[in-house]
Write a structure and sequence with these properties.
Mean pLDDT: 78
Number of strands: 12
Largest sheet: 9 strands, antiparallel
Oligomer: single chain
Structural class: alpha+beta
Shape: elongated
Strand content: 15-25%
Order of helices and strands: HHEEEEEEEEEEEHE
Radius of gyration: 31 Å
Keywords: Membrane, Transmembrane, Transmembrane helix
Low-confidence stretches: 1-5, 44-49, 244-255
């Protein structure tokens, strides 16, 4: 005699199908009230007979749950990919670019190209747009994705300055981008050094940057003309704070 309990024996496909059919039938019968009479202990449902079903049914349920989970993950990844594709769609009409719903003016003689990178779209606005962007960069977070990290601000604060430089930063807190509250930083390594500019929404969802000593006027033109009315990302909580020490250093400070 085999020592293996019969409920743990390996089931054939036909047996498992039959057990699932029995369970579904039993659910229907008990659910509609036609066969809900209590039965004496030890007496099974008529449709179940002597079939062994509890353990294989649990295994089947686990398999189904796993499949459902995998399908959900695949569907979520597909939705994320679709959002990224939509966020990187570019069109230009009458001197105005539209990158995933973010609209802004394009300087004369320049064009736009978009480069998806993880959870952001990097739009290069330049005479010859490229991934390393010799022009103004508009960084747009994907709707539903994370905000820009704190490290995004570092270049304008003088990370590229030589050791011993002052790393000066000026701040304008009265600006807006597309009607949403924003901030404008411009930083330089010494008082007479070239400046780098950064305009950023206070919820860190969109930023406009210029390289040190170049394209400041073009960056200002783009920042002033940003239109977010067709952008699907809704405003988030304020993530940027600032402090002013005294009138002498209210707009200029050393970092």
């Amino acid at each position: 005699m085999s020592s293996q309990h019969e409920d743990f024996a390996i089931w054939k496909d036909a047996e498992l199908d039959a057990a699932l059919d029995d369970l579904l039938a039993a659910g229907v019968r008990s659910g509609d009230g036609r066969d809900a009479t209590p039965r004496p202990a030890g007496q099974g449902l008529p449709l179940l007979g002597r079939r062994r079903w509890p353990v294989p049914l649990i295994a089947a349920a686990a398999v189904i749950a796993t499949i459902v989970g995998v399908v959900a993950i695949v569907a979520d990844r597909q939705r994320t990919a679709e959002r990224r594709t939509a966020a990187a769609a570019v069109s230009v009409s009458d001197g105005v670019a539209d990158v995933g719903g973010v609209r802004f003016p394009v300087p004369a003689g320049w064009s736009v190209a978009a480069y998806p990178r993880d959870d952001v779209v990097v739009a290069c606005v330049a005479a010859a747009p490229s991934a390393d962007c010799a022009g103004v960069t508009v960084t747009i977070t994907v709707p539903g994705g994370p905000t820009l990290p704190n490290s995004f601000d570092f270049p304008v604060f003088g990370d590229n300055c030589a050791p011993g430089d002052g790393k000066y930063v000026q701040v304008d807190t009265s600006v807006a981008l597309g009607g949403r509250p924003a901030i404008h930083y411009w930083g330089y390594c010494t008082l007479d050094a070239p400046q780098a500019h950064l305009w950023m929404l206070l919820d860190r969802s969109l930023a406009i940057t210029t390289p040190r000593g170049k394209w400041a006027d073009q960056g200002a033109l783009i920042a002033a003309g940003v239109d977010l009315r067709t952008w699907s990302r809704q405003p988030g909580p304020r993530l940027i704070e600032w402090a002013e020490a005294s009138e002498a250093v209210s707009s200029t400070s050393e970092r």
